[in-house]
Design a protein that fits this description.
By secondary structure, the chain is of the alpha/beta class. It folds into two domains: 214 residues, Glycogen Phosphorylase B (Rossmann fold); 174 residues, Rossmann fold (3-Layer(aba) Sandwich), CATH 3.40.50.2000. It is built from 15 helices and 15 strands. Strands 1, 2, 3, 4, 5, 6, 7, 8 and 9 form a nine-stranded mixed sheet that branches. Strands 12-11-10-13-14-15 form a six-stranded parallel sheet, sandwiched between helices. Helix 9 links the parallel strand 10 and strand 11. Helix 8 runs antiparallel to helix 14. The chain starts with a strand and ends with a helix.
Length: 397
């Protein structure tokens, strides 16, 4: 049985030796979920124009195993793409419809223009399909740019209609995306986060770290997210720590993530905390957990989110955490430590409140226990059962 997997939001990367790679959302563990159900899988992504050196690509990205997965390139239909044309749109329809016809099943990951087109042809040709809802296009576009505000309502409506009529829907949240994009079909809420083994030694180490905190040492805040996207909300944390440090506190902010940080650096300089805001760049995934063990409090200040992998990973290390009210973030956190998105005042007040040792200890334990809900084996069994329902639907036709 042949599966077509479509996500127009992802770009496949290539190195100088012709090897292909994906970003952080698609590692071998993710593909194994689908390969356990469908033997023949074709992936439809965009292609990145940059060709990377092999050594760099191996360290930075996840290898795309061409012996297990087929690849079809789809033209870039993103709303910000400068060379968008009617011809490109028509070519995309032709490529996607042909691919849908050649496969037995479709999984479309939304939001994405290519995913919406694939769903259209799955319906037309009566192919069993499943929709994976991994984010909210309204929030993503509205907080992205002025142009994004123009297309936000269009993408919201397209996604809402696609999800509403889908026979199978997989949400990465338990509540938020379900409320905003309800479905009449069979649905589950299941995070796509894959956590390493969680053991009590992690929490014990965190407790010791908190107990050893001293007033003369800075309290280290951390966020893992690309640093060149303003909707990630880093600037509000920078402004808050400026106010806190002016009031006698000692906070530092350590940021992990790729991208040009010149805007955030300028914000830090403007608010007098350039020496307190540390840009660590992109880290290999296994190094991220070492970084999380070094920080004292994790902050998820996003203006838009699904269910953030970075926050769940931080919680799995016993990190006391605060976050905005965007997307699925409130599903994870103590409601006491949720702030209004974009509110420097709220962040200022919550950081004062959480930085007391007794509170840090309580929140470390809460984070750690909450993260256990994202046990890899438990979630994987839930996913596999649901994907089997899609397969069985096709076999019974």
């Amino acid at each position: 049985m042949k599966l077509l997997f479509v996500h127009g939001g992802e770009k496949l990367k290539e190195d100088t030796n012709g090897n292909l790679y994906t970003g952080s959302s698609y590692n071998q563990e993710v593909w194994d979920r689908y390969l356990s159900i469908f033997v023949n899988i074709t992936v439809m992504f965009r292609r990145e124009f940059i060709v990377y050196k092999q050594d760099f690509a191996k360290k930075k990205f996840h290898i795309f195993n061409k012996s297990q997965l087929n690849f079809i390139e789809v033209p870039d239909l993103s709303t910000s793409y400068k060379n968008f044309s009617v011809k490109k749109l028509m070519d995309s329809h032709h490529i996607i419809e042909k691919a849908v016809l050649e496969h037995d099943f479709l999984i479309a990951r939304l939001p994405s223009n290519a995913g919406n087109i694939a769903i259209k042809y799955a319906k037309k040709h009566n192919k069993p399909y499943l929709v994976e809802v991994v984010g909210c296009p309204w929030d993503a576009y509205w907080h992205h740019s002025m142009k994004g505000k123009v297309v936000a309502s269009f993408m919201w409506l397209k996604t809402k209609n696609a999800v509403k009529s889908a026979p199978f829907v997989y949400y990465v949240t338990n509540e938020f995306l379900q409320r905003r994009y309800p479905s009449k079909g069979k649905a589950i809420g299941c995070s796509d986060v894959a956590l390493p083994n969680i053991n009590n030694g992690i929490l014990e180490k965190r407790f010791k770290k908190i107990q050893d905190m001293r007033n003369e040492k800075p309290i280290i805040l951390g966020t893992t997210a690309v640093v060149n996207m303003r909707y990630k909300g880093h600037e509000f944390v920078i402004k808050a720590i400026s106010q806190l440090n002016n009031n006698g506190y000692n906070f530092e902010y350590h940021l992990v993530g790729a991208g040009d940080y010149s805007f955030l650096k300028a914000i830090a300089e403007k608010y007098g905390v350039s020496d307190k805001v540390i840009f660590l760049g992109s880290l290999p995934h296994e190094k991220v957990f070492e970084y999380l063990d070094m920080i004292d409090i994790y902050v998820q200040p996003s203006m838009t989110e699904g269910l953030p992998r970075a926050l769940i990973e931080a919680m799995s290390r016993g990190c006391p955490s605060i976050g905005s009210d965007a997307g699925g973030i409130p599903e994870l956190l103590n409601e006491t430590f949720i702030f209004r998105r974009g509110s420097t005042e709220d962040i200022f007040n919550l950081l004062k409140k959480i930085s007391v040792k007794a509170t840090l200890l309580n929140e470390a334990k809460r984070s750690f226990e909450k993260a256990k809900e994202f046990d890899k084996e438990l979630l994987n069994n839930k996913r596999i059962t649901f994907y089997k329902e899609l397969r069985n639907c096709g076999e019974n036709k």
